[in-house]
Each structure stands twice: as C-alpha cells, then as structure tokens.
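Appendix B, Record 12. Input sequence as logged:
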Amino acid sequence: MTKIQLVTNTIINQGALPLYYNADETVTLEILRSLYKAGIRAVEYTSRGEAALSNFTKMVEVRNAEMPEMLLGIGTIKNVQQAEEYYKAGADFFISPGFVAEVAAFLIPKDLLYSPGCMTPTEIIEAETAGVTFIKLFPGNALGPGFMSAIKDVFPNLKFMPTGGVDTTKESIESWFKAGVSAVGMGSKLVSKELMLAKDYATIEIETKKVLDIIQTLK
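Logged structural output:
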C-alpha cells in the first residue's frame, strides 16, 4: 500500500480529521494525547504561528515514542518552502487552504498526500489534473452540503472533505455524509479555544469520542 493510500484510508476510516493549533508546546502535546486516547489516528496541526514548526517537530518526537499508529499532517501550507520544512520535520500529509501547483509537484512524487482547499469546479479540476486525489472543500460553511451533492457525480475518482463550519452535531455531520463526503475536517467546533485555554483535555477526549461514535452510526 502506498503512503498516500494509507493516509487516505486512515482519514476515511475515522471519518473526521481534527485540526488545531496552539502556541504552547505542552498544550499542543496534551491535546494530541487526548485525541489519540479518543481513537484518532490522523490529525492536522495548522501552521499558523511562529511556534508551529518547533511544536510540530516535538509532536513527531512524541508520536514516535508514544503513538506509533498516529499520522501527523500539517495544514495551512501555502508555498513550497513551508512544504519542504515540514517534509524534513516528518509530516505524513499536507493540507492547504487553496491549491498550490508547486506544492503538489513537490509532494505527490514523494508519495505524500496533498489535500488542497478548493471551492470551485475549476480549482478541483486543476488539482485533479496535478494528481491530487483528496480534496478539501473550503470554506465548508460557505459552500454547504448542497455544493457537494451538485458536483460529486462530476468527480467520481476524488475523495472530498469539508473543513470550516462542520458542527459536532449528528445533524451537521450527517448532512455532509449524505451529500457524499468521505470525511469531515473539524477545527474550533471540536478543539475549541475555550477548551484549550482551560486545558480541559478530558472534555476534548470525550467530545472527540462522541463525534467518532456519530460517524460510525452513519456508515
């Protein structure tokens, strides 16, 4: 099995991809442990702050020591320089807010999953032509499940995952899966700023388990 297929299967099997960023290294690692205990085996850390690269490097170190099955992805990749830095740091997959052809050309030949954010059929076609197989629908709250329903038959060979605006409720999650997505990306609705500030790792674990349980009932 290729690395791209392994990552794809892992994300689809769990059905939700948690994503978060925290400037504090300890908080970052404790959230990772909470997600792992909840049953998560693929997570996206977003490159949105000065501490992102050093924190991610530490996440890889802790993963290697404590959670061998965990796949660590990096999000908010906007150029090749960032992709190279996180490739050297050991990222298992890469996610962008938009499609960057140079990033696709750098990662895909290395058998690394690249999932770019797309919100138009033109962008999706460009990504598919570049070899992308897993599309991030972004921003999900602006597009809505109706967009997914309208385009899914046009792109039968692609997997889709909305990010942005997906709630932790069964109604929200179910509406996307019924529309044809393979997974849902979940950021602040799951790992909220309030929970991170309170360092309430137990609740993050509980809420994540609830989401995974909801998804299993929908499959």
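Residues 58 and 96 are 21 Å apart (CA to CA).
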